[in-house]
Amino acid sequence: MNDFEHTYAVIMAGGGGTRLWPVSRKERPKQLLPLLDDKTLFQSTVTRLENFFPPERILVVTVTEQANEMQKQAPEIPTKNYLIEPAPRGTASVVGLAAAVLKKRDSDAMMAVLPSDHFIRNRDLFHYLIRTAFQVAKKGYLVTLGITPTYPSTAYGYIHQGEALDGEFKYPVYKVKQFIEKPDEKTAQKFLRTGDHSWNSGMFVWHVDNILKEIEKQMPQLSGTISKISASWDTPQREDILNSLWYDLKNETIDFGVMENAEMVAILPAGGLGWSDVGSWNSLIEVLLPDMNGNIAQNAQHLAIDTHNSLVYSNDYERLVVTIGVDDMVLVDTGDVLLVCKSDQAQKVRDVVQHLKKHRQEKYL
Amino acid sequence: MNDFEHTYAVIMAGGGGTRLWPVSRKERPKQLLPLLDDKTLFQSTVTRLENFFPPERILVVTVTEQANEMQKQAPEIPTKNYLIEPAPRGTASVVGLAAAVLKKRDSDAMMAVLPSDHFIRNRDLFHYLIRTAFQVAKKGYLVTLGITPTYPSTAYGYIHQGEALDGEFKYPVYKVKQFIEKPDEKTAQKFLRTGDHSWNSGMFVWHVDNILKEIEKQMPQLSGTISKISASWDTPQREDILNSLWYDLKNETIDFGVMENAEMVAILPAGGLGWSDVGSWNSLIEVLLPDMNGNIAQNAQHLAIDTHNSLVYSNDYERLVVTIGVDDMVLVDTGDVLLVCKSDQAQKVRDVVQHLKKHRQEKYL
């Protein structure tokens, strides 16, 4: 493992996530919930790193409100590795802060940026890909992991790959042509057919020097801010500097703030990873293993009559859920809210959250 | 009202009813529940009789388990007017017992037999029809109220009418040709087209002498039993006689045990009564008044997005029910059970109850 002694994992864990409402709440966002098994998504993300990154080389970037709960859920990660932002300012700020702090602690650091709230079934393949990505990153590339599409999703961003990268890599690696925002249905169909488009997983691997250089070039305000903040990070001035500078940062993603126009960007297209962003109730049907009628009962006592391709998600196993003549439906049953939603309209859950905010029904948020 | 001083209402109130599970329960059957408004169906049935039958001329036939609750719900009806059966034995026994007891109390009694768990929107028309029915019954007829079909229901029995009845009635009255069990879809379509078939409402009007004569002729065992029981009814021997004879009675309906082969049977076909037997969750959609999308939220806080012709029935107004992309669905949300059912399959709720019995999940019954 000598090759990997300067490698770090940076878990991005500050998000809110309204698409899994009513289970995901303001106080208890998605990554802090045991959505798929008895571990929370955040805990699973940490566990997935075992035997690759020791806890002292795992950093967590989060926001004040979530930090305490995260430290409870993953006490093995040292407290100083929790980088707490005063407020969310997009993934560009997350990445910039983590890279700058890491560089001060280990000038030869390489980092893998990993979302805290995704699902990956094939952990061995994940380790293999991250290992390969570090090898590519050593050559100076900003590396991203792409997910080989299995259907024409309009819920994910895409990455268009170009020519294969020269080098002695055991896994195919390509240069990146373009980062693409969520497409419409027709474009997604086209992307699927081309075979050279991947879903953007939001996972990145690079040397801290290379990403910091690109940030300096493309996002000078962010670059200036994070170098001041990182200089004060392990000093008593941290709080003051952080609070005086942080709020002026623009909300920007690393994808479109930096990667899109960076020079040496590579992609490892990953098929068979069993990946999902767990981004909607609909996606749970992909992640969890349905019965022969396509149904899933998660923590629910479900009596299914003439019911197909439906998800029943409860927080009370004593409650009996009976469905009759129900197809392609998502049922989410919490203490104070019942959601019944056609699977292909699961993204509208966000509209519900907006509606509740607008009508000040705070207790359901 | 001199014409009506010997008229009585007999409310049949002993039924169970599994088709409105999970709200209708073993301990709390349909007629004892405030399904449609703040009154229970039984209370609404009693209220509907105001200004026609004074409470002392209303009888209630029920079973032991329900009697206490009924007396609580309608205390204005004298205790001696609650006729309590040891166990349900079909409507033939209900009618026979009530007629025999009434005859002992008032030898010139005429009675209107009324189910306790039906809905009637147009109370004035109901009174008008019952009044007319008593006039027809005075001529010696066994009179039944038929409901003019508005769609080809396969959930109701039908009555085929024959020629118009001679007489000075202000409302059209016909002889009955035949009582018909629930038909299949094709037959129901045919019945609807003929225009001379009515739904069997289970409401009857007759002189006690006439129904008792028919029972004697067609159901001699029942006739013998009820004359012994009624002779002892207002004596200390009632319980003993009742318990020794009642359980041997056959379970039989008045429709097919007596009416089908009786000689002088007349029908008043009623259109516009706004009648429903409230016999399934689906029927609630007919009874309650839906919003412009065809949705009904009964005791429920319902946020409907792209939702049509659906019923949300809850017992907790604090709970938020959100539906997205839901059509023709029934949602019933009780403390321990959640039912989600395609409207046109609402009759399968009975299968669920059977399933729960078979699997000894008593707590949900």
Structure description:
2 copies of one chain form a homodimer. Chain A is an alpha/beta fold. The first copy, chain A, has helices at residues 41-47, 64-73, 90-105, 123-138, 185-194, 208-218, 220-232, 238-245, 254-257, 281-287, 349-358; strands spanning 7-12, 58-63, 82-85, 110-115, 119-120, 142-147, 158-164, 174-180, 197-207, 265-270, 275-276, 296-298, 301-305, 311-314, 320-324, 329-333, 337-342. In chain A, strands 6-9-7-8-10 form a 5-stranded mixed β-barrel. Chain A has a 4-stranded mixed beta sheet with strand order 12-14-16-17, covered by helices on one side. In chain A, helix 2 links the parallel strand 2 (58-63) and strand 3 (82-85). In chain A, helix 3 crosses helix 6. The first copy, chain A, is globular and about 60 Å long. The termini of chain A are far apart. Strand 15 (320-324) of chain A pairs parallel with strand 17 (337-342) of chain B, so a sheet runs across the interface.
